[in-house]
Structures are given as C-alpha cells and as structure tokens.
Specification:
alpha/beta, 231 residues, seven-stranded parallel beta barrel
C-alpha cells in the first residue's frame, strides 16, 4: 500500500479560489495561456505556490478558451508538440517548472492515442528532459513518457468517475464529476492504496475548497504522507 502521495490541483484558470486551495496541496498545475490564463494569472499563481512551498507545474491544453480546452481538436503530432512546448516555455519564463500535466481534452486524448502521447512526451523532453510528466495511471501517456526517458508520475483523480477500462468518464455523461465529499474521499483513499504517484482534485469545481480540505485530512488520518512527487 502506498504510504505517500503527491496532491495536485489545476489552478490559474480563473475559478477565483486558488488562494484557498493552495495551502492544502503539494503540486500546482498552472494554466499557460491556451485554454485559460495569461501572463498576469501565471505570475499570480506562481507567487501563491512559492508562498506555500508548492511545486510548480505547467498545465498545457488545447487553444480553445470557448470550451475551456475540454473539446478535442484535430491536430497533427507536430502541431501538438509545438502547442505543448510554447505553453511550457511561457511558464518557464516566469518560474522554475518542475512538472507538466496536459489539460482536459488533450490529457484524455494523449491517454489513449499513442501518436498524441508521443508528441506530448517529445514536447516535454524538448523543453527539459528533467521535467516530470503527470499522466493518467496505466495510460498511453505513461508509456510514451517512459519511452522518451522522462520521469512519469502516474495520476489518479479524487473527483472524477472511471470507466471499467481505467479511462475517465467523459464529462458529458451524468455522474462524471464527483461532488460528494464522502464519496470523493473514499475513492481517493482506495486509489492511493492501489498505487499512484499523484492524486488530482480539479480547482474549478464548485465544492473544490471543501473537498481539498476533506481529502487532505482523510489522507493524513490514514497515515499517508502528502509530499510533492520526487521530493
């Protein structure tokens, strides 16, 4: 059973409560200007993370603000690589980046499509081979990252339902997002005990602040150390 876990959250996306979430997590995935965010929000979120000793990560997504990066776009592998590279480099100009975690539809596409997964991994390696790649546990992105020689943190979710094949239930389907604190905490503990490197809670959820506090407390009460991946 895992006795240690990194606790990450997607931030800098305009949800309005990043300051309340940051004290309870160990890694922040910061929107880099495509699906959300701009230089000002990146700077503000980085400052918050540094104040709380939280590891800074880039959160690149499809350039589709209208749909918050949650609609799959048809891009070539070269276009995906370029898209990820420029977003990670944008955050690098502001702070030292520790990890990269794709966002939304790009994350889900890379989890199942070997070509897109390889493009994301190639982008991360091109920026800095020392960066950690956050990827859905057991996915194509995990395999691509390791094939590219990257350190990979296998990720699970506290607030998302899973399909039987291990993929995340699409948000368009009912019940895809878990909002009940007790249900979310139970899933988090189960997934951590099954073996994971990092667990995510989405920062844009209506109940995100209450959930992050509950999950942090439940993990610690279960004797699980919460610490940034690789530290």
């Amino acid at each position: 059973m895992s006795r240690r876990i990194d606790f990450n959250c997607d931030l800098g996306e305009g949800a309005g409560h990043d300051g309340e979430l940051m004290p309870w997590i160990t890694s922040a995935n910061i929107a880099c200007g495509a699906h959300a965010g701009d230089e000002a929000t990146m700077c503000a979120t980085v400052s918050l993370a540094q104040r709380h000793g939280v590891a800074i990560g880039a959160h690149p997504g499809f350039a589709d603000r209208e749909n918050f990066g949650r609609r799959e776009l048809t891009l070539t592998a070269a276009e995906v690589q370029a898209l990820v590279e420029w977003q990670v480099r944008a955050l690098q100009r502001i702070a030292t980046v520790v990890h990269v975690k794709p966002h939304g539809a790009l994350y889900n596409l890379a989890a199942r499509d070997p070509m897109i997964a390889a493009a994301v991994a190639a982008a991360v390696r091109a920026v800095d081979a020392r960066l950690v790649l956050f990827a859905l546990r057991g996915s194509e992105l995990v395999r691509a990252g390791r094939s590219a020689g990257l350190r990979v943190a296998e990720e699970v979710f506290a607030d998302r339902m899973y399909r039987v094949d291990g993929a995340l239930t699409p948000r368009a389907e009912g019940g895809a997002v878990i909002t009940d604190e007790t249900e979310s905490a139970a899933q988090a503990l189960r997934l951590v005990r099954e073996g994971a490197d990092t667990i995510c809670l989405h920062g844009d959820g209506a109940h995100a602040v209450a959930l992050v506090r509950r999950l942090n407390a439940e993990l610690r009460q279960a004797g699980i150390e919460i610490r940034a991946f690789g530290v």
